[in-house]
Amino acid sequence: MTAEPIAYMERTRRYYEAQGFEKAYAWARFDDIPFTPLQKPVSDSTLVLVTTMALYDRDATDVRHVASGSTLEAPARLYGDDLSWDRTASHLEDRGSYFPVDAVHDLVRRGRIGALAERFHCAPTDYSQRRTRQADAPEVLKRCREDGADIALLVPI
After folding, report:
1. Residue among 119, 4, 148, 97 at smallest CA distance from 50
2. Which backbone phi and psi does 54 adopt, to 5 degrees?
């Protein structure tokens, strides 16, 4: 039996309609793609992990901010119960699915990646594209640059 793909965009539209929002959800759009070619091979690059999970068990109403933690002594778990995600198709028991720090350490040992930055970053999920573009994304970028990262692996829940 072949599973049908999950129609996330349509589900999101229906979710917003059911919540009573007057405006339909507006997907982020970039006329100029904000990516750049690699400056050096991945095997010579420092990678930073960025996740949408949190360092602590938040309430849905908590104000969200960019947070950082150590990849040298990575936390046993991260938190995301306050986020909206398909709980029938996924779960938070497999840390490697949303925070693959062990797999990246292995890739570094095997020489596939040059190094893993000593910090990882938690990007807050916010329905405000303005806040994401003007505050959160620049803060994550600033921290990645402080860490000497050449590349980032963005892992959402």
Report:
1. 119
2. -120, 160
Find the domain containing 122 and state its range: 36-155
Cα gap 87→91, rounded to integer Å:
6
**What's the DSSP call for residue 121?**
E
Locate 137 and state its tokens.
């994304």
CA distance 27 to 36: 22
Residue 100 lies in a domain: yes
Q: What is the pTM of this model?
A: 0.81
Q: Which tokens sit at 58?
A: 């938040």
* Phi and psi, residue 103, nearest 5°: -65, -40
Rounded Cα distance between 25 and 18, Å, is 12
- The answer to the question of residue 23 being in a domain is no
Say how far apart CA 44 and CA 150 lie, in whole Å: 9
pLDDT by residue (tens digit) across 39-68?
999 999 999 999 988 888 888 778 889 999
Q: Based on the structure, what is the number of domains in the chain? A: 1
End-to-end CA distance of the chain: 26
Residue 25 lies in a domain: no
Is residue 130, in this structure, part of any structural domain at all?
yes
